[in-house]
Amino acid sequence: MDWLYVLMPIAGVKIFWPGLIILGVGVGVIGGFFGMGGAWMVTPGLNILGFPMAFAIGTDIAHMAGKSLISTMRHGKFGNVDYKLGLIMLVGTVVGFEVGAQMIMWLERIGQVGPVVRWMYLVLLALIAWMVFADVAKRRRKEKEALAAGKEVDKLATGIEWHKTLHKIKIPPMVTFKQAGITCSAWLPILVSFFTGWLAGILGIGGGLIRMPALIYLVGCPTHVAVGTDLFEVMISGLYGAASYTYKGRTELVAAIIMLVGAAIGAQVGSVATKYIKGYGIRIAFGLAVVGCFISVLLKLIPTYYPPLYTICDVSATILILGLVAAMSAYITVKMVQGAAREVAMKKGKAA
Predict the structure, then answer these.
(1) Portion of the chain with pLDDT greater than 70, in percent
(2) Res. 312 pLDDT band, cuts 50 70 90
(3) Rounded to the nearest 5°, which phi and psi values hold at 15?
């Protein structure tokens, strides 16, 4: 079965190449749909397939940049990108990213990069999952209360409304973002992007895992605009990050190219799917994906403390992460096809 493995010349490890293709296509679909580079799955996925953590981060960021460019162009056609907001956030993203990347280099020198990054992933994934499902629960409670009172809840309203409190902080300059439909202090998106940029540099996630929820719950963007704007930001930070990690010698270009070929196709599917699945449909699917990713990272961490479980945990983590990517991308693709079919049927009905 040696033909199923390919040597990565820079990292010096042999990798199961069909796993790279599954990650590329699947995460292309998922990233285009959720508005993220999908790196929150790819970095642990590459690590599970056999890449050292620093190479997993650098390789992921390199592949993410090209894929996000394709997704951003598609979302731009749907009017889902607030370019003004994305450009303002770029300031904090670049500074935060470099701070995080330097921390990874330091952790690698002291031999602690793997355990530290995995524990940070677990904490972050748990926080995001709680936030998403708490939001969904509060939103449904509001809908039931409104229904009982004979009223209707605003379709763009969220369960968690932290952004309303943050918008009351009016530190100049105040900026209006037309596409997102909000007015706030310019410092709000800058500070949010600095924090997410820092996470991007440490975890190799392009900031997307935390920035998409942050755009919704902290900045106040509608979900579909948060998706497109986040991809625009992921594209920019990804290009910078790829250059930074390549300069540091931690990018495996062979793996990045293999994944990018599949991701370019998948990103088109994921971007179009947001046209048919909006709002809370996106958030619930996102929350389930985060929970699955949390379990896979936890399985990879267990053998650090209980070595006898290494084989079973390693195999289980690999199956789970690849299965999760395949299942989630298949679900999104099916929903897109169903939505497109309904749209075609409606057009035919009107024409008749």
Answers:
(1) 88
(2) confident
(3) -125, 145
Q: Tell me which DSSP letter residue 84 carries.
A: H
pLDDT in tens, 205-231: 555 667 777 888 888 888 778 878 887
> Do the domain assignments include residue 278?
yes
What is the C-alpha separation between 202 and 52, in angstroms, rounded?
14
Phi, psi (degrees; rounded to nearest 5) at 7: -80, 130
Angle made by CA atoms 251, 256, 257, in degrees to the nearest 5: 130
Token readout for 299 is 């399985």
Distance CA 196, CA 233 (A): 11
Residue 249 has which token pair?
Answer: 């010698």
CA nearest to 274, candidates 314, 308, 229, 316: 229
Looking at the DSSP assignment, which residues form a beta bridge with residue 175? Answer: 184
Structural domain including 204 reads 2-341
- Read off the amino acid at residue 185: S
Write the DSSP assignment of 273-289 as a string of letters.
HTTTS-THHHHHHHHHH
Query: pLDDT tens digits for 67-87?
Result: 677 777 777 777 788 888 888
Q: How many domains does the chain have?
A: 1
In a domain, 346, yes or no: no
Question: Would 349 be classed as within a structural domain?
Answer: no
**Does 52 reside within a domain?**
yes
Q: Are 244 and 97 contacting, i.e. CB atoms less than 8 angstroms apart? A: yes
Query: Rounded CA gap, 240 and 68, in Å?
Result: 13
Strands, E, within the chain: which ranges? 5-8, 13-16, 174-177, 182-185
* CA 223/CA 241 separation, integer angstroms: 26
